[in-house]
Amino acid sequence: MGTPLIELVNVSKSFSGVQVLFGVNFKVQPREIHCLVGENGAGKSTLMKILSGVYPYGEYEGEIRLEGYPVRFFSIKDSEKAGISIIHQELSLVPEMTVYENIFLGNEIKKGSIVDTFEEIERARQLLLKVKGENINPTVKAKDLSVSMQQLVEIAKALSKNPKVLILDEPTSALSETESENLLILLKGLKEQGVTIILISHRLKEVLKVADSITVLRDGQTVAYFNCKTEEVDEKKIIKHMVGREITNLYPMPIAEPLDEPIMETKNWNVVEPNTGRYLVKDANIVLKKGEIVGLFGLVGAGRTEFGLSLFGNPYGYIISGDIILKGRKVKFKTPEDAIKQGVLYLTEDRKEKGLILINSIKENISLANLKALKKGITVDEAKEIEIAQGFQKRLNIKARNVEVNVSTLSGGTQQKVLVAKGLFAEPDVIILDEPTRGIDVGAKYEIYTLIRELASEGKAILLISSELPEILGMSDRIYIMSKGKITGELKSEEANQEIVMAYAVS
Amino acid sequence: MKEFLRHLKEFLKDHVRDYAMFIALFAIMAVFAALSGGDFLSPVNISNLVDQTGYIAVLAIGETLIIVIRHIDLSVGFLSGFLGAIAAILMQFYHFSALSAIIIVLGLGTLAGLLNGSLVTYLRIPAFVATLAGWLAYRGALLLATKGSGTIIITNKTFNAIGNGFIPDLPFINNILPNYHKLTLLVGIVAAVLIVYFSLKNRDQQIKRGFDVLPLDIFLIELLFIDALLLYITFILAAHRGISWTLVIMIITTVIYSFITNRTVLGRHIYAVGGNPEAAALSGINVKKITLIVFASMGFLSGLSGILFASRLQSATTTAGTLFELYAIAGAYIGGVSAAGGVGKVINSLIGAFVMSTLTNGMNLLGVDISLQYIILGIVLAAAVIFDVATRSKER
């Protein structure tokens, strides 16, 4: 092999005294798709932020080499000039600005001293065509686009800088399977055109589909490098390096048998979108039983999340009809607070926006939904609060220095655990989990699964909403399948397999 | 006709927010015109109204950009008063010329803005607190500056013309239209023609590039409406003493700021910083620099406001600038700027400022009790923001 296009030599980085990268070595050959994998907190994003100048020269140790020559990036602009473009994990578009304004943000096309709007729109069209986003109107606002369309805009934005190297940090975590598929095809196309791609992803199947080579990072160190052209690589091998141990089974075994004792039922449940009058959920009848994990599967747009939310005090103000029967009684939840009080809990897929208060501590997040239990007169019993939070920290293996740590400093998987702890503290009978493992790594996933099993064995009824079919099949005792707002199928876990479930999901 | 109604409906649906403030201003003016039996629309009153709006309008324009980048500036009212007093002292006690006093005051204003901006960006003090400190300090500074003398009367004619004077008339054609200000008419007509020309040219260019444009009928009605309004105001002003220097300054300020925000890279970056600061930073925009620039511009405009006010009163008073900041912020919010950042147009804030001063002017004219005036202003502000929030959420 010739000189690597990019080489990071012995790179270390600390954040306020905590070292996160320990002398990482990383190299990428020209015109390849190189995948960077590792658990959350392994240091992948940090490494890429160093390479793209977000953390400027001087804030890290070690060396960046470009085509063999050492380079120093003092800002994002420097790395862009050198031909490196990055698409960050959190979508970074300005919602109130139009697509073309976003694409050229920071690199505006000028005519004299003014921005050449017409030229920008024209060029935006061409760029969008290049990323197969020709149906995106460049003059609409970014906030009016779907997540997958926004992703394409981000890629168009990166391509507008004519990069030699394109870095994508978890680009598919918010996309459905088809959308991810299209994105991967796009990346392959870009490679053909001569762009070198560095892809960070948790989805190992995707990684194996597109990677020419793979670097595995663990706890801030490079632990493995695979050349996919010359050696056989499979998921197991990668996972072994990622977690440092072999995971024989992705899903823990059930602890106890579910009981045949219904806790919650819905009867002819309808959910209507108030503005359009469209049915999001139509005539849904489901039963949740004590100690049972019930999977709810559906493709994107099937109405899974809307269904879950409508059962939880209907925070978005959908028009609802039908009955909920909880422990034999007909009930109505006016608000989420009301639902929690009566023993129903919903944990959201969108932990940053809806689930956690990031600037608060672990302790405060856990106690928020059930502060009444901690009342001492009119004050909060802080000693008890800490004790309970520490209990959860131990039980869920929440990796943090202590419970006073701000949630914003934790990794995705750890945040998810805090969210689960918050839910458990409210002592629910029914737990609705909406995509509990989205965007978190294999090791943390296993811990979350174990926890779900434990909760079931304690007699809680669990509704597991997921778009990941293996997760549904691996965890559920019983499965409901939704399609276009309707429950199209109900299967016992032993009757179910991928093909059957998919058939119901697309019906 | 059916086609036209459909166009009109779509237009209202898509643009109700853009034009709501114009319509509201129009409605308020119509109400006052009717209640006052025509006094409100008299040339003298409209001319006064424009001059009364000037010193608030320039502040509202600056405050718009401040709010767009998610900050607030409370110091501008007393800063404006204090800088007006500085101008008065320079001219009365140290015999500076009007021009040098103006340049010094604008420079000092810019420095004061930079100071606020530095506190916010480098020392990370919340803008509310940093500028509240400024509010207190400048109030004290104003009292200090006027301590020995009390109100300082300004005798510089050039300076006083800014707030009270009008552009000269064409000298050589006194015999035609003797009761009208000819240059004002000329300016108004030229402006009306230019608006038609550039609107048509722009539309043509957009069609050529394959963009969505307004249907022709709606476009023509809009153009007709704008031109009719412009010409009407021109005639009213021309029937009095013509375009005032305050109006000239206001128009120039609005045009420059609209140009910067709509057409330049700086403008783009200001809205990006307001809309999503993280994304802006990751796009290589220097957020601190933008913040400093916006605060500096606010300081500059505070100086301008101070000049306009002092020259209008022909004096610097101990209470100059009281409540200016709140009227300016109210004007910006009435104009549809969003506290969530990234949204708000300069021209709309100008209209917002006009809504505020029209209400005050009209109610004064009708002899409405001052206590009731404040209550009505409060209700109008709340209603404007409620309307804005309601239409915004509907958009989603």
TrEMBL record, chain A:
- GO molecular function terms noted in the UniProt entry: ATP binding; ATP hydrolysis activity
Principal place where this protein is found?
A: membrane
GO cellular component annotations, sorted alphabetically?
A: plasma membrane
Question: InterPro entries, alphabetically?
Answer: AAA+_ATPase, ABC_carbohydrate_import_ATPase, ABC_transporter-like_ATP-bd, P-loop_NTPase
User: Any idea which UniProt keywords this protein has?
Assistant: ATP-binding, Cell membrane, Membrane, Nucleotide-binding, Repeat, Sugar transport, Translocase, Transport
Give the UniProt subcellular location, in the record's own words: Cell membrane
Specify the protein's topology with respect to the membrane.
Answer: Peripheral membrane protein
ABC transporter domain location: 6-244, 266-505
Q: Which Pfam families match?
A: ABC_tran
Q: TM spans, by residue?
A: none
Q: Any idea what this protein is called?
A: ABC-type sugar transport system, ATPase component
| Organism, as annotated | Thermoanaerobacter thermohydrosulfuricus WC1
Recite the lineage of the species: Bacteria, Bacillati, Bacillota, Clostridia, Thermoanaerobacterales
